[in-house]
Each structure stands twice: as C-alpha cells, then as structure tokens.
Amino acid sequence: MWFPRCLIRCTLRRIASCAKIGFMPKVAVVVIDVQEGILAGISRRRPEETERALDACVWRISELLKRARAAKVPVIYVQHEGGVGHRLEPGSAGFPIREEIQPKRGEVIVHKKFCDSFFETSLLDELKKLGAEQLVIAGCMTQYCIDTSTRRAVSVGFDVTLVADGHMCGDTRTLTFDQIIAHHNALLDGFDAGGKSVTVKPAAEIDFANASVATS
C-alpha cells in the first residue's frame, strides 16, 4: 500500500512529539515561607547584610516564577502560620507573602504550622491534582522548612530540584547564613529515597521551556 511521503513525515513528527510529552515529567514549583517577617529578629549580628541577601534571593525567586508561568508550570505557595506572638502569626505584619512574589489569581496557597510542608497540610493532595512528578523548591528557612520539606518530598515520591541560590536563612551563633546555605546545598544534592532524588541547581540554570530542570 502506497502512502504519500508528506503523510508519513507528518505522522512521524506527531509520534515523536507524543513520545517527548509522554516522557517529560510534570513539574510544579513550590515556594515555601517567603513572608514579610520570615527573618525578622533572626540575624542580629549582620542585619543589613542579611536583609540585602534576602532581597536578592526573593528577586531570583521572582524571576524563576516568571519563567515558570511563561512555560505554564504551576506554582504552589506554602505559608507558615505561627502561634500567638510569633513573627509569622496570621494577621500580623510579618504574615503576608512578600509583595515581589505575590501569588497570581488561581494559584494555590497551602498553610502549615510545622517545618514539614507536607505534615498536616493539603500540599500532597494539591500536587497529586496537578499530576506533578518533579518539584522545584525555593524559599525559607534553609535549615528548617527547606531542608525538611525537600527530604519529605523525595520520600513521598517526587524528584526535587532545589534552587541553590533560591533559599535563605539568618546567621546562627556558630554559622553565617552563607555557610548554612552552602552546607545544605552540598548535603542535599544527590539525597535519594525510593528511586527519587534531589538535584541542586542555580536559578539561572533552570529552564522550564526546555525541560532542563533536574538534568545536570
């Protein structure tokens, strides 16, 4: 049976396109605790330097979100609800998500009370609704909610790209925020569980349009 050459080429292109879509993991961005008061009173040793670094981190996250939205990648926010008197207490000046990265209409905000963004929250259900297989995680604070949520994401079945320069914290008594961030980037890169793993990449290297999210 004879088929026109143009029909064969068209069919092959469609097959290749479907194959590419079929093997491309569904990605979602999760932004954790980037709230107005997230570092308020945390770093008393270097407050100005810490604030500048936080602003720079938020800017990188903002640029990352622009690229994600342009590529139709869904964005989910996690917002911490602190107790009475906490710097992130609902209704306080520190509670709102930073103005630079305000959620767009229709984007989900998940509320949490603990370091683990999955613990007693709707995050896993929301990600399942999206059919997400791979997460891009950014936010605050590095050694608490970012570390805990990244590990938990892997253990519940997601590959994770942690944005190397997209998470932030304050100085502690023994370590500067730079040291904490560098330590956790090194520690989490390659962390795995059940066939899923963490890849750490700078924000500028995450290309949603070409699906180079977790590839090295």
From TrEMBL:
Molecular functions (GO terms): hydrolase activity
Presence of the UniProt keyword Repressor in the record: no
Pfam families referenced in this protein's UniProt entry, alphabetically: Isochorismatase
Listed transmembrane segments: none
InterPro entries per the UniProt record, alphabetical: Isochorismatase-like_dom (IPR000868), Isochorismatase-like_hydrls (IPR050272), Isochorismatase-like_sf (IPR036380)
Annotated Isochorismatase-like domain residues: 28-167
Keyword annotations: Hydrolase
UniProt protein name: Isochorismatase hydrolase
Organism: Koribacter versatilis (strain Ellin345)
